[in-house]
Amino acid sequence: MIIVMKPNASETAITQVVKLIQDNGLETHLSQGKEVTIIGVVGDKNKLVNKNIELMSSVDKIIPVTESYKLTNKKFHPEPSRIKVGNHEIGPDTLTVMAGPCAVETEEQLLTIAREVKKAGAQFVRGGAYKPRTSPYSFQGLEEEGLRYMQEAKKETGLNTICEVISAQAIDAAVKYVDMIQIGARNMQNFQLLREAGQSGLPVLLKRGLAATIDEWLNAAEYIIAEGNPNVVLCERGIRTFETATRNTLDISAVPVIKSKSHLPIIVDPSHATGVWDYVSPLAKAAVACGADGLMIEVHNDPEHALSDGPQSLNFKHFDELMAEMKAYIQLAERKL
Ligand code: PEP
Ligand code: MN
């Protein structure tokens, strides 16, 4: 449940409510706005029966929350979250573009791509150093060496960097080299990994699982935030359906649904959603038009020879065109790159 304090309730009154809840064996999470403080209560609310919290003079109202996720819930945190990465903010005022190769292949490849995506307006370079491939015989990534190239790309271009992690060891390595970590679709319900990502101290991009409901996705985000890391951004990347014309089906409705249920930013990845480079541009525009906070787009210097996901990667010319065409949509959405 959520306790909404009266506007301008004193510190002492807030502490009194918090203490009452904690003394009864429940956890509290404070969300302090300019005027109103909201206290999220996590745990078995039956322990508070007969405590008459709603009668306390500093309490405005109590909102029961039926969803099992609390910290992710918009009821607990009505304002949209703003996630800081370096000097960039992911949130309602910006349109964040994360672009780069599926996999880091060589230092030269990554640096060439980073320079180009920077020129076109992206604020992040993405690149996989640990690749969760369907076949164990496919290219698995350069691991720590790839992370070092990401760090080089940041040094040279000033772009923020994001890299997927697939294990606790990968997280330990990533914290040394990159600005943000990504939990991929295949690991969305790897609860131990989510906890470790929560403890890493880095902002986390949490992709939606291949067959995960929005409720399961928000509960997965809850695992990260419950470790004390509120810096979570969601990424819709398509879900499995009966349709085979595209690699997955982009659930564009996830954007407004998430906006109605959660305060977390949501970005859209039309590359993995479709698997076809030619479909990326229209869906990127649709995502911006329907309120997404950003995009993740795979870009490669030579898609035909990419070690992974070549067919869905934009070449430099197509990425430039997309970024130019997107300007009008970004303006209409009242955001800035
Ligand atoms: C990726 O971003 O490289 C990736 C593997 O994506 P997903 O987890 O969405 O399949
Ligand atoms: Mn990929």
Topology (SSEs and partners):
Blueprint: E1 2-5, H1 11-23, E2 27-32, E3 37-42, E4 59-63, E5 83-85, E6 88-90, E7 96-100, H2 107-120, E8 124-126, H3 144-157, E9 160-164, H4 168-177, E10 180-183, H5 191-199, E11 204-207, H6 214-225, E12 232-236, H7 254-261, E13 266-268, H8 270-274, H9 280-289, E14 294-298, H10 316-332
Parallel strand pairs: 7-8, 7-14, 8-9, 9-10, 10-11, 11-12, 12-13, 13-14
Antiparallel strand pairs: 1-3, 1-4, 2-3, 5-6
Helix pairs in contact: 2-3, 2-10, 3-4, 5-6, 9-10
The chain binds phosphoenolpyruvate (PEP) and manganese (II) ion.
Phosphoenolpyruvate binds next to loops.
Low-confidence stretches: none
- Tell me the CATH architecture of the largest domain: Alpha-Beta Barrel
Largest sheet: 8 strands, parallel, barrel
Q: Number of helical runs?
A: 10
Kindly report the CATH topology of the largest domain: TIM Barrel
Q: Return the average pLDDT rounded to an integer.
A: 96
CATH level 1 class label of the largest domain: Alpha Beta
CATH superfamily of the largest domain: Aldolase class I
Strand segment tally: 14
> Order of strands across the biggest sheet?
7-8-9-10-11-12-13-14
- Specify the overall morphology: elongated
Portion in strands: 15-25%
The separation of the N and C termini measures 37 Å
Q: Element order, helices and strands?
A: EHEEEEEEHEHEHEHEHEHEHHEH
Overall domain count: 2
* Overall SS class: alpha/beta
Hetero compounds: phosphoenolpyruvate, manganese (II) ion
